Amino acid sequence: MKKAIALAALISASAFAGAASAQTYNSEMPATSSVDVSVVNVTNDPSSGNGSRLPANLTNPGPELIQDAQAQLQSDPALVDALAMKNVQLANVVHIQTAANGGKIVYVR
Fold it and tell me: Per the record, which residues fall in region Disordered (predicted)?
């Protein structure tokens, strides 16, 4: 019985949390960008503290990797706009990866 009450309370609380977050969204506000972008600085490996490291081809990128990234930037103005909003200098982009959710992971030096 206690589990049923706890489950009901949890469901109720999650319903209120969803309603609260829905209320904060204003459909009249312009979207900041049509591209979901995460920026990773390869010179300061953020994953090194948890025992994993970025692959060597990202921390020490070759010219082909950089050229591919720069070509992607030239063909994607929405991504360029999103990076400009994050104050990313395009010349520092060394790799671009598409995330599982369709967003972009941009590696910069």
Answer: 40-63
Tell me how crowded residue 63 is: count the other CB atoms within 10 A of its CB: 7
* Secondary structure letter of residue 108 according to DSSP: E
Cβ partners under 8 Å of residue 107, min gap 6: 39, 40, 42, 54, 58, 61, 69, 93, 94, 95, 96, 97
Q: Which comes out higher in pLDDT, residue 56 or 51? A: 56
Map tokens 């020490």 to a residue.
60
pTM of the model: 0.63
d(CA 76, CA 69): 11
Q: What is the pLDDT of residues 6-37, one digit of tens each?
A: 445 555 554 444 444 444 444 343 444 567 99
